[in-house]
Amino acid sequence: MNLADLTWPAIEKLDRRTPVVIPVAALEQHGHHLPVFTDSMLLGEIVRRAAERIAGRVLVAPLFWLGNSDHHLEFCGTFSAPPRVYIDLLCGMAENLLGHGFRRIVFINGHGGNDVPGRQAVFELRQRHRRLDDCVFLFATYWALGLPPASSGLVQREMGHACEWETSMMLRLAPHLVGDFASEPDVSPSMPFDPVAQGWITRERTERGHIGSPRFASAEKGEALFEHFAAQAVAFFERIAGWDGKFFDA
Ligand SMILES: [Zn+2]
After folding, report:
1. DSSP 80-117
2. What is the tens place of the pLDDT at every residue in 13-57?
3. For residue range 108-151, what is the model confidence (pLDDT) as tens digits?
4. How many Å lie between the centroid of ligand 1 and the Cα of residue 92?
5. Rounded to the nearest whole angstrom, what is the distance from the C-alpha of residue 3 to the centroid of ligand 1?
6. How large a percentage of the chain has pLDDT more than 70?
7. Alpha carbon of 138 to those of 6, 54, 122, 164: distances in Å?
8. Directed axis angle between helix 164-173 and helix 219-241, to 10°?
9. In angstroms, rounded to a whole number, what is the distance separating the alpha carbons of residues 41 and 54?
10. What's the 184 CA to ligand 1 centre distance in angstroms?
C-alpha cells in the first residue's frame, strides 16, 4: 500500500499494527559518472520491488530524499540536512505516525551518511516513548540487511560510493543517466585507522567523488543486486508484519 495514494479515512481504517515503512535516501554527488539522485533512485526501485511482493501488509510512505550528506558538501549540487537536524526530521515523521496510532515504524535507508543519525533517531524515540509497550522503531540500511550477494561476478565485497554496485544498478535502472564509468580509477575504501571509527569528509578520501571500482559495473550485475536486496527487504518487512509484539520469550 502506498500511503500517498490513500485518503485519510482509508488510512484511519488500517490496523495500527501495520508496519509503516519510510524510505530515506539522499541527493548528493556520485562522482563524475552518476547523477546526484542515485541513492534515491536505487532505494526507490528496491522498495518498489519489495512492496509489490508484500502488497497490503505494509504501508509505504513516499521516499524522503533529503539526507545527511554534510561530508559531501565540497561537491557541487549536494543537498544536506546537518546531523542534528536530520535526527529531528526522522523523529518528527515518527511522531506524526505515533500520533495517528501506528506503532511499528520502519526507516529503510539507502545512504551511508544517514546511518549514524538514523540509529540515533530510533534510539531517542524509544527512550522518549518508554511508557509505550507496543511500539517498535527500526532503522535499516538496505545493503546491510543480511549477507552480501554471494556471486554474480562482483569484484567488490562491500558497498562503496558510486562504485561497482551502485553503477551496476544504475546501468540496469537508468542507463541513459550513466556516464563513462569504464575509465574511472579504482579508489580504495580503506581508512588509515580501520577498524576504529573516524570522522571523515569525502574529499580527503577521493578526488573525483567515487569510492570503489565502478569500471567493473554491468547491467546484469545490477539486476542481480536489485533482486538480492529486494528479497532481503521482503524478508525484513515480513518479519515486522508477522511480529507477535514480544521482545523475548517469557
Ligand atoms: Zn550512493
Report:
1. ---HHHHHHHHHHHHHHHHHTT--EEEEEE--GGGHHH
2. 999 999 999 999 999 999 999 999 999 999 999 999 999 999 889
3. 999 999 999 999 999 999 999 999 988 999 999 999 999 888 87
4. 25
5. 25
6. 99
7. 24, 18, 6, 28
8. 90
9. 20
10. 16
